[in-house]
Design goal:
Length: about 260
């Protein structure tokens, strides 16, 4: 997931063979990841990034994940946009915009092992804190919101996984699950666009990656719609428990890559 870019140019995947094992594996993972995203509002990158990075290399795998994260969100936006707190989203994106290039720079120039351990430790600490029942008293202030956005942007540029800081930020509050999911779904569209722009500026994404994403988009979008249909069936407590499990999975999975 987190690895040094090798060579002077990124290695792009070939035009997709729709019957090849790598493409079929990618499509299945994309569909499952889309279901998770459609239900929880985050978590798709946790499933896609490790698999895509193993199949196509870290830089291409992360770029492909970012493209599919945007694709899965597009059909979900109309149903949630009325619940979005645009002021908080704007502050989060301001912090993210500053930190995304730093994450991308780190991806191409820093050894991955220490970063994996640090990220895992931070996420697990957040999970333990949330599981203990801790919540914000009142609404987060501007500084806290900017910090959450910056942390998310840095992780998105570094690993394609913007979710943990923002999930923690919203789950630590008292907003209902529908509002949390709406804000997460909307935020990730914009932060993924920021990360893609940063990747493009460093020549980490090319035409063949876009074609690969185009062919995989129906799978992830189908999964997203299925996940969206399942969301109304879940209780508030189940949603929060699932979100904590996803965050713990990110932390543990980071150590296994």
């Amino acid at each position: 997931m987190l690895a040094r870019r090798s060579g002077n140019a990124s290695v792009q995947p070939p035009m997709p063979d729709l019957l090849s094992a790598p493409f079929l594996i990618s499509a299945i993972v994309a569909c499952i990841a889309g279901m998770v995203r459609g239900f929880a509002g985050f978590g798709a990158a946790m499933l896609m990034t490790p698999v895509f990075s193993a199949l196509y290399g870290p830089a291409v795998g992360i770029a492909l994940c970012l493209l599919l994260e945007i694709a899965v969100a597009l059909p979900l936006i109309p149903a949630v946009v009325r619940l979005v707190d645009w002021r908080r989203i704007g502050l989060l994106l301001l912090g993210a915009a500053i930190a995304v290039p730093l994450g991308t720079h780190t991806l191409t120039g820093v050894e991955p092992e220490p970063m994996r351990w640090a990220i895992s430790a931070i996420i697990l600490s957040a999970v333990i804190l949330l599981a203990s029942g801790w919540r914000f008293s009142g609404r987060p202030n501007v500084a806290t919101t900017l910090l959450a956005g910056a942390s998310s942007g840095f992780l998105n540029g570094l690993s394609g996984m913007a979710g943990p800081p923002i999930a923690f930020y919203y789950l630590a509050g008292n907003d209902p699950a529908a509002r949390v999911r709406a804000n997460l779904t909307t935020y990730f569209v914009f932060v993924d666009l920021l990360a893609l722009a940063s990747f493009a500026s460093r020549d980490l994404i090319g035409w063949s990656t876009g074609v690969q994403g185009l062919f995989l988009a129906p799978a992830v979008m189908l999964g997203g719609v299925l996940g969206e249909r399942l969301f109304p069936l879940a209780s508030e407590s189940f949603y929060r428990r699932l979100a904590l499990v996803l965050l713990a999975g990110v932390a543990i999975g980071s150590l296994m890559l």
